[in-house]
Amino acid sequence: MAFPQPRPQAPQLPQHLLRTVDCQQGAVRAVRFNADGNYLLTCGSDKSLKLWSVSRGTLLKTYTGHGYEVLDVDCSYDNSQLCSCSSDKTVILWDVASGQVTRKLRGHAGKVNCVQFNEEATVMLSGSIDGTVRCWDTRSRRMEPIQILDEARDGVSSLKVSEHELLTGSVDGRVRRYDLRMGQLHVDFIGSPITCVCFSRDGQCTLSSSLDSTVRLLDKSSGEMLGEYSGHVNKGYKLDCCLSDKDTHVLSCSEDGHVYFWDLVEGSLTLKLPVGKAVVQSLSFHPTEPRLLTSMEGRVQVWGVEPEDAAVEDAKAE
């Protein structure tokens, strides 16, 4: 005998502030969850990189080695390595446990805006204001990149790696998708400088935000525009956008101190989350749960679905 399926619950959005972390590293340029979402990483304008516990908001380690402000960071799938990039034109590979610099890679001609590991953490990819993406082998001692992608006509502001695909956003107003297996390049012209790109969790779509205060969802294979999301302010800063853990909502930072949540399918504004009075510079959505990180000035905020989350987490940690 078959029972009817339970009605799917409406997705819950992380709108309760669980804790605020005062990072004490100047302005927080980027905040990122690690691969499993138990830790968070902050990039500081004081040249440091910090690793924190999400559940307690405690500082676990500080990484110093960059010569200027740190702009982006990524953690390997096994939490053993970090890669970071900076306005000092370098990319650094770190050993998480010891806090030591494993490799410091030079080659970009200007500040490096974004960096990411591939899935196996065998390659680091970095995008720079010099208009190139450089691919670095994490296992060899070679100081030269294994590949340089120089198709962008202006700075590369954002990049994401997914299996055999690389997505980049550039100030030249184009989103480029490289199929590394097939050796193909697909270009979508948006027109306004791109500040952030990402893949949907199901890998079927790409999301991009640009300086015309609009976030766009494109079908990956056809390039067809599936949705446009606006209402937020993004005119002068490099701000993050992303999708929620189950691809139900589109999120964007805003220069008006809020994070905007839109329903992915309907395009309507679901939630305008007040973070503070300054620019929400960066955000990161938990890989599997409705948790959100935001950064504003020198602080990071951790958001959850309900306020008692914090008490439960602390009880678990005891």
TrEMBL record:
<dbReference type="InterPro" id="IPR036322">
    <property type="entry name" value="WD40_repeat_dom_sf"/>
</dbReference>
<dbReference type="InterPro" id="IPR001680">
    <property type="entry name" value="WD40_rpt"/>
</dbReference>
<dbReference type="GO" id="GO:0071013">
    <property type="term" value="C:catalytic step 2 spliceosome"/>
</dbReference>
<keyword id="KW-0853">WD repeat</keyword>
<comment type="similarity">
    <text>Belongs to the WD repeat MORG1 family.</text>
</comment>
<feature type="repeat" description="WD">
    <location>
        <begin position="63"/>
        <end position="104"/>
    </location>
</feature>
<dbReference type="InterPro" id="IPR020472">
    <property type="entry name" value="WD40_PAC1"/>
</dbReference>
<feature type="repeat" description="WD">
    <location>
        <begin position="105"/>
        <end position="146"/>
    </location>
</feature>
<dbReference type="GO" id="GO:0000398">
    <property type="term" value="P:mRNA splicing, via spliceosome"/>
</dbReference>
<dbReference type="GO" id="GO:0005737">
    <property type="term" value="C:cytoplasm"/>
</dbReference>
<feature type="repeat" description="WD">
    <location>
        <begin position="21"/>
        <end position="62"/>
    </location>
</feature>
<dbReference type="InterPro" id="IPR015943">
    <property type="entry name" value="WD40/YVTN_repeat-like_dom_sf"/>
</dbReference>
<keyword id="KW-0963">Cytoplasm</keyword>
<keyword id="KW-0677">Repeat</keyword>
<protein>
    <recommendedName>
        <fullName>WD repeat domain-containing protein 83</fullName>
    </recommendedName>
</protein>
<dbReference type="InterPro" id="IPR051980">
    <property type="entry name" value="WD_repeat_MORG1"/>
</dbReference>
<dbReference type="Pfam" id="PF00400">
    <property type="entry name" value="WD40"/>
</dbReference>
<dbReference type="InterPro" id="IPR019775">
    <property type="entry name" value="WD40_repeat_CS"/>
</dbReference>
